[in-house]
Amino acid sequence: MNKSSSCRGATFCTTKILKILHKLPERMKPNNEECEQCVKILEELENIDDDCERHGIKFVKTQDLKIADKFGASNYPVLMYFENGIGGVFEGDLEEEEEVLQWLIQQRTEDRIELITRVMLEKMVEETQYLAVYFYKQNCNICEQILEELEKIDDECDVYGIHLVRIQDPQLAKRYGIKTFPALVYFRNGNPLLFEGDLQNEQSVLEWLIDDDNRELADEIEAVNERMLARLLNESPFLAVFFYDEDCPECEEILQALEEIDGEADLFGIDFVKICSAQAAADQGLHTLPALMYFRKKKPMVYDGDLTQSGKVLDWLTSQDVFEIRNEIEEVNKKMLEKLLEENEYVTVFFYEPNAEESRIIMEKLENIDSETDNFDIKFVKMADARYARKWGVTHLPAIVYFRKRFPSIYRGDLHSEADVLEWLRKNRFRQPELNLFMYALMAIMVAFLIYTGFLLQCFKTSPTTVVVQHQKQT
Predict the structure, then answer these.
(1) How many CA atoms lie within 13 A of 143 on its CB side?
(2) DSSP three-state, residue 474
(3) Does one domain contain both 348 and 365?
C-alpha cells in the first residue's frame, strides 16, 4: 500500500523503509532469562541484516522505553516495521529469522493491512482524515478469513485516500460499541461509523467506504484526492469543488465561510468537496488558487466573486443561470423545486420512476421540447420522487404537472406525444392572461354590486318612502 505521511508524529519517518526493534533495558528485566531471550533474538536477526539492506530495509534497534511507549509497545521484545510513518507489528516468532525476513520483504514489496497498536491508532485517528480499522481477535478462523478478503481491497482503499489497518484490542473495541468480532470501524476526521453489513463481501465493504453519504460529515466540506474527484465528476450531477493549496494564507478563512453553506448546498442536491492538488486544478484549467468551480454534469463554471461571502456563493450555486443546462431537462430535489416555484410563475415538472423503461422513453421525447418551453418562459424540470408527487395529486407515474403561481394542473393526455404535451403547455401558458381579464371584470362587477346594495340599504334606513317615490318616478 502506498502509505501517506498522515501519521506525522512518528519520529522515525524517513523517505526509506525503517524497521525498529524495541528491547527492554537490563535494569527493567524481572529476571536474566528474559534478557537472554532478547540477546538470542538479536543474534538471530543479525543473520538477516544484510538481506534487509539489499531489499532497501534499514534495520535498527533501541532500548529507549520512551520510544517504545510512543508506539504503544507493551510486550518485549517487539519488532515494528515503518513505511512513510505508518507502522506495523510483527506477530510471528522472532527467533525464526527466516520468518521475520519473509515478513519484512512482504511488507516492503506487497500491499498488506498493517497491524497497529492502541497508541498508533489513537494518533492515526487524530491525524488521518479517512481511516478504516479492522478489529479482530487472535485464534479466530473467521477473522483470518475475512482479513484475507479485505487484503484484496487494500490497494483500492489507498487510491481513494482511505487507510486500512487492523488491531487486536478487545478493550478498545468496547469504546466504539463493538460487541462481536470481527468488526470494521470507519473514522472520518475522527468520527467513528460502524459497518453493519457483510464483512465477508469485500466489494460491499469497499462500496460502503467510498460511498458519499458515509464519507460525508455534517457542516464540513469533504476532502478528496484526484481519484475520488474523478469518481464524483462521473457520478454527481451537481458538484462544487474548492481548489486550494497548502501555502495559502486566506484559504482557512474561505473554508470556514464555505462550510457555513455546505449543509444548505446539500439540501439543494449539490455535493461540496475540497481538494489540495495543484495538478487537479491544472487539469481543470485553473492556474490561480484558491478557486471555486461548479460542475453541472461535468460542465464547469468558475465563481469570480468573493469566496468569503458565503451567502453570495450559495445564491450563485442555486441560481437558475448556473443551474440550467440548455436543451436538457434538469433534475431537481424538493428544495430546488420549492425555490423554482417561488421564483418562477410558470414551472412544469415531469415526475418519473427511476430505472423504469417507460419513464426513460418519455423523458427522451420530452427533451425534444425543452427549448420550446423555454420560449414560452416555462421552466421545465424532472423529479424522481413519488411521495412528493402525491402532494400535488399525482397518483400514477410518470406524470406531468404544470404550475402557475404554484397552482398545479395535471396533464391527462398522451405522454408519449411530445407535440400534444407542448400544445397543452402552450394553451395553459397563454390562456392565463385572458382568464386574468375575466377575473378582474368579474371582481369589478361584484364590487359595484356590493356598493350599490350598500347604498340601497342605507337609503331604506334613512327614508323608505323617499326611495319608493323615486323608484316610481324612474318607472
Answers:
(1) 15
(2) helix
(3) yes
